[in-house]
Amino acid sequence: GTLSILSVGANNAWTSPYLPQITNGTYPGISVTSDEGSWIAIMPQLASPPGALMAAYLVDRIGRKMTTLLMAPITFAMFITLAFARTTLAFCAIRFLIGCVGSILYTALPMYLGEIAHPAIRGILTASVAFSSLLGTLLINVLGFHFSILLSSLICAAIPLVHFLAFIWMPESPYYLIRKNMDETARESLAKLRSTDDNGNEFKMISVAVNEEIANKKARFLDIFTVKSNRFALFVFIILNTTRKFSGIGPFLFYTVSIFQTAEGSVSPHTSVVIFLCIQIISAMVSLNVLDYVGRRPIIIISTVACIITLSISGTY
């Protein structure tokens, strides 16, 4: 399932290798201004809110698996279109649509993985979504250094195709099936996921959890603000997301090559980008392995402090 996120990571970071080429007129047949380039860069971010809203509807309407699976042909079509795009409007539209797909996947896939995974590996499995995005970021930067937009887009188009062919055989989430009163199908799904029919206790636990969730659905939207525990959860959510957005990951992601070109260091921009992304991937691998041992909160605190230090150094420089 996380294979689909590779395409999302590639789309998010597509501007890193290609934006400098199409804005300075060195790419054959394509030329955009810096202002147009900035719009191309932020399209995936603008697509996030509508994508999340669509995901909230789709995951309960057609299921977690089908929502994730449906994104594959859309992503495939968009990368094929990107291969032959030549105008600012086309680039913006394609990146916006793939951004919507990415937002849907970031909502549906962790939900699916969390619901099908054994509790012992649930944390690692859901965290692997972000890891796959980093791999996609590295992939598009490496491809962008060596191949044209046409070739790199065709290569990236193969990823959702492989994902579709592999993921179509996966069972639907037992949680979703129980919500739809498909208990027998849910039992079969759970048996396939656990490779055993002896899962009666887990099935009962899932049923209880689903029933509690359905009961909580009766809660009002205003309960987010009127219930103390909900207000605290909302506060934590806002703080964490604000911290992430102000961590600098967006500009670094979109303009990685441009930033290193401007820095004019002794190491070439392309090599610097690869080193930068490899450090990110190594950090993600470390966090994946210690996530369930150290805990989420310490990792968040450590990464936040590290961001403060590195951004301060970068800003001072």
Commentary on this structure:
The mean pLDDT is about 85. The chain contains 16 helices and no strands. Helix 1 (about 5-10) runs antiparallel to helix 5, helix 1 (about 5-10) packs antiparallel against helix 7 (about 150-165) and helix 4 (about 65-85) packs antiparallel against helix 5. The chain folds into 2 domains: about 1-170 and about 250-315, MFS general substrate transporter like domains (Growth Hormone, Chain: A, Up-down Bundle); about 175-210, no CATH class. About 30% of the residues are buried. It has helices spanning about 5-10, 15-25, 35-60, 65-85, 90-115, 120-145, 150-165, 175-180, 185-195, 200-215, 225, 230-245, 250-255, 255-265, 270-295, 295-315. By secondary structure, it is mainly alpha-helical.
